Structures are given as C-alpha cells and as structure tokens.
Amino acid sequence: MKNLFDKHSFESAQKVTKLYSTSFYAGVKMLDKSIRADIHNIYGFVRFADEIVDSFHEFDKEMLLNEFCDDTYRAIDRKISLNPILNAFHYTVNKYNIDRQLIDQFLHSMRMDLEPLDYNQEKYEEYILGSAEVVGLMCLKVFVYGDESKYQELKPYAMKLGSAFQKINFLRDLNADYNELGRIYFPNVDAQDLTLENKLTIETEIEKEFDEALIGIKKLPRSARFGVYVSYKYYRKLLRKIKSKTIQDLLTERIRVPNNEKVVVLAKSYIRNSLNIL
C-alpha cells in the first residue's frame, strides 16, 4: 500500500537527520509533532544534495547532481518517487505549496560547489541565498502552516537567521572547507590571508543578523517557536566560542559546543520560552 511506502519515506528522512546532524535533530524534536516530519523531509533533501557535492569525489558529481535535480522535479510533478527521500520531500513541497524558485536557488548553490570558485561579494551573497536563506524559507512555510500572509511577514527574519547560521558554518568548517575541499567562501580573500579584522567584520555581521532574526522568532507560532529558538541560542553559543579562537585555530580544528553545554542551552531556552521572555 502507498501509505506504507510514504511511512518508510518519512522515517528515512528522519533517520538521515539523526545520522548527519544530532544538533539539528534535537532542535526538530522541540517542534510540535504536527510539523516535525515535514522539517525532516526538507533536511533529507538538502542533505542528500549537499553530500553529492561534498563527499562523492570518486564519482561524476555533476552527473549525479543533474540526475538528482531531474528526479526532484519529477517527484514534485508526479507526487511520487521511488527514492524515499525525494518521495518525502515532494510531499512537503506539495502540501505547503513551497515555491519552486526556492528549490531552484538551492540547487544552483549546490552547483556552485562542484568546483572551487573565487568568491567576490556578489557570489558570496548568491551562495548564501541559495544554500541557507531559501532553506530557511522552505522551513518557514511549514512553520506557518502555509499561511502566505504570515510567511511574507516573517520572510526577512527567516533569511537573516539562515544567513547567520551559514556564516557561522563557514567559520566553524574553515578547516575542512579549505584544507579538504579547497573552498573559501568569504569574498576576495584566501584562508591563509584572513586577518583578525576580516574575522571581526564577519562576526559583527552575524551578530547583527541574529538580532534582526530574533524579532521574527518571537512572532512564530508557538508550535515552531521553541525549536527555532533553541537552534538560535545554540548557534549564538557556537559564535561565542568561535570569537574566542584565532584564525589559525579555525584552520586546524572544528569548533563544537560540548553536550553538557547544549543541555544548559536547552534548559535555559525552555524556561525563557515558557515565560515568554525571549
């Protein structure tokens, strides 16, 4: 029966989330049950595309990405795919009428990762839009249960949050991106030429985006607010750790928040959300 295959598809997306990102998985668990599966479905899609360009070095990544793109759109149009991850993703896209332009922009950024690029400011902003901001907008459509007016109201804040998260990821993953994949996303610099001034500028940008994003988080439906707020607080904690590191530290290690500190973040976030003092 089709419903059994759909159930398997949703469970597959959930397992992908748990396997690849325990922190994101924990954040999704803080969402209302009515929207958890849909966020897993989006994450599964995003993660598979990202894996193609980041991990499959022994294969023709461009061909695989082209096939994945074609399969994605076929799944959305046909409302079925034998790929469980795409079968789960199309369900959420069609359920909430997620704009295909968001999917186009995301996949475009994945194509930008096929080969190392020299990033200027325009390409930097273009990549962040596709790789992070539009993913936040896909999730926002779920958070507001497809309500278009609420979506448009909160759209700018969701984009700021996605941008802040991605810039933190760039700093946190500087070692792997540069030393393993030959990438540096920050505009007009080489990783070895990054200065303290560059780092401070990026951190200031992130802080400003976080401040703006919090305005939108406060306006989210209660079914989504706590889960998003926990992720927001976790990333602010991660940013504080990054601020304490030198550029050389970032080029030699991946900065993490220990599990015991994550528990503290979760507990404090729960109290503040319960008291409505975000």
Identify the notable features of this structure and list them briefly:
278 residues; mainly alpha; Farnesyl Diphosphate Synthase; 77% helix; globular
Précis, in short:
By secondary structure, this protein is mainly alpha-helical.
If you had to describe this structure to a student in words, what would you say it looks like?
This protein has 278 residues and is an all-alpha fold. The chain has a domain of 134 residues: Farnesyl Diphosphate Synthase (Orthogonal Bundle). It is 77% helix and 0% strand.
As a whole number of angstroms, the C-alpha radius of gyration is 18 Å
Based on helices, strands and strand pairing, what is the structural class? mainly alpha
Give the beta-strand count.
Answer: 0
Bulk shape:
globular
Considering DSSP H and I runs of 4 or more, what fraction of the residues is helical?
A: over 70%
Question: CATH homologous superfamily of the domain at 145-278?
Answer: Farnesyl Diphosphate Synthase
CATH class of the domain at 145-278: Mainly Alpha
Distance between the termini: 45 Å
Mean pLDDT: 94
